[in-house]
Amino acid sequence: MGLGLVSALECGAEGIDFSGDAGLPVPVGVVFGLLAGSVLVVRRRWPIAVVLVSIAVTPAQMGFVMGLVGLYTLAACELPRRIIGALAGMSLAGTMIVTFVRARQDVGHGHLTIGDWFVPFLAITTSLGVTAPPVLLGLYVGARRRLMESLRERADSLERELQLLAERAEERAEWARGEERTRIAREMHDVVAHRVSLMVVHAAALQAVARKDPEKAVKNAAIVGDMGRQALTELRSMLGVLRAGESLAHHEPVPLAAVGAAAAAAASRAVGDRSADAAQDGPTLAELDELVDQSRVAGMVVELSVEGVERGYPAAVEQTAYRVVQEALTNVHKHAAGAKTYVRLARRRSEIAMQVENESVPDGEGESARLPSGGNGLVGMKERVSALGGVFVSGPTDAGGFRVSAVIPAS
After folding, report:
1. Which CDD domains match (predicted)?
2. What digits encode the pLDDT tens for the residues 206-233?
3. In 10 A of CB 146, how many CB atoms?
4. Which uninterrupted H or E stretch holds 258?
5. Residue 375 phi, psi (nearest 5)
6. Going by C-beta distance under 8 Å and a sequence separation of 6 or more, which residues neighbour residue 160?
7. Which of 84, 126, 255, 327 is the most exposed place for a label (fewest CB within 10 A)?
8. What is the pTM assigned to this prediction?
9. Same domain for 246 and 276?
10. In a shared domain, residues 320 and 208
């Protein structure tokens, strides 16, 4: 609006001289100049019309501001370059012709005494001076504006992508935390089920011999105490990992999308690291003899046979094999107390195989301990083995017993 007012005032003032040259009344020339100069107000909406008006009033020697601003606005707009070039060329040609004619007239009237070479030089330099700078500046500003818009769009797109990555990373971290909780739940089930089952068996034996054989009763009581302490130690260890996972899960989120993605990915890695550490700290096949001895002390008849040379398997493989045997022995304590049990382990180069089979339950001995069952033991064993790409099979035998078999790849 301000430039439009300046242009109108300029053209109105120049309309005084125009009215004298054209033989028109001064008010008519002033009104004509005001109307022509006020066209600059619509330069942003119709820049082509403004440039055409400035070219049209060039012979009247008015519209200097309108011409400069109009060409600048035209070059900065989102218009094809051929249109900008054509209008700029028309303005250049019009200014050059008018300047040439006016200079020739001044020379003819004796107002200029310089040589003939000065007229075309003046026409060329004047037309270039009032046309080239606004056009070049407008092209630069338009290109810069388009570049900034492009960068802004790319930044918005990148922010959306980062937000999406953050959400996906948080989903992966939540999935990893869920897997960690599931693993800890399996570990807690194995620890509680096995230790408590043995404790119940020993407690039943303690109750039976408390009066008849005090020495044996004291021995059974000591075993129950040791097993209880072992169970508490293992439970504390796993609960500590679980609390650490919950603390990480409820950590305050950082509002930046990129930092959120990195934090979520770090949470996922941290959960994975804890899982790996837990696997390293878990039981191994070297402790299998101790596990079988615990069942023997509880009164179970167990035969252990191991085939193959001792090999170094990954910690997760050894822990899973140990837990399968442990849970199978626990099930024997629960459902087949007194039955003879066979534990077979085969160490191979590419895999490790195990089998726990119990004979049928002797009459009158299957319900002596009255151990409850949650029904999750076989499911947990199958999940453990399948997670490592192994095969798990369980079911009753033809002789009335029960067999649990598993094969786990070594890598």
Report:
1. HATPase_UhpB-NarQ-NarX-like
2. 776 677 777 777 777 777 777 777 777 7
3. 12
4. helix 257-281
5. 80, 10
6. none
7. 255
8. 0.48
9. yes
10. no
